Each structure stands twice: as structure tokens, then as C-alpha cells.
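Explain the record.
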Amino acid sequence: MRLWSLHPRFLDRQGLTACWREALLAQAVLAGRTAGYRRHPQLERFRAGEAPLDLVGAFLAGVADEATARGYRFDRTRIDVLRVGPIAPAIDVSDGQLDYEWGHLLRKLRTRSPERALDLEDASPAPHPLFRVVPGPLAAWERP
């Protein structure tokens, strides 16, 4: 499961659809609808919030917004808690985590979507709208 802290605009088609599916799985775990993945480390940051389902719903909304911008149709009715309006940053992500994910994404893209990797060569990482960047190292939950 990879719930990217990076803005979904950086993901290729495969990455965007995988992120959607994995975030739906995360939502099911947080809602108690599945037995698998309950201890997945990437869920820690959602569980740390006051309303984990609101947070994962906002994450899914950000991914769906990017899909819509690209002309894809992700079924927003699958989002348990969907707030109307722009997403406000609610989860801190360290710049060290963002940099790690940026390198990880670029390595994946160089293999899977070389054209996309070239497009991003001069770009700088930016967070998903749900995340607020703070100084710090790689997240403790990350498994490099």
C-alpha cells in the first residue's frame, strides 16, 4: 500500500489508479470493513487524527480531483466521508518524507513511464492538498 504524500498530479495513469484503489482499501481498514492491512504503517498518520475517516476521505477526494482534471471518472460515491469544498492541510508530512517519496516515484516512473519521468525532471515535489510540509526526517512509519 502506497498512500503518496506527493500531490497526485505527479503520478502517471497507473500510479493514480493504484493510489485510488489503495486509498479505498485504507478507508475500508479504518472503517473496520476488512481484516487485512490493519497494521499497515502508512495508516498511522490517518489514525493519529481525530477523525481518521474524514482524513482518508479528504485524501481520496484529492486523488479524485486529479482524476477528474485528467478526464477520468473515479466514483466519488465510494468515499465514506466526503466534504464539499477545497481540502485544508490537516496532516503534517516532513520534507524528508516528501523528498524520499519523490525519489521513489521518479525511480518507478523511469521504469514504467519514462516520458512522465522526463516531464518531472525539473519539477520540485509538492504535497497532496491534505498534507502540510514541516521540516524533518523520513517518517518513522516509512519502510525504505
Observations:
- The chain has one domain: 8-134.
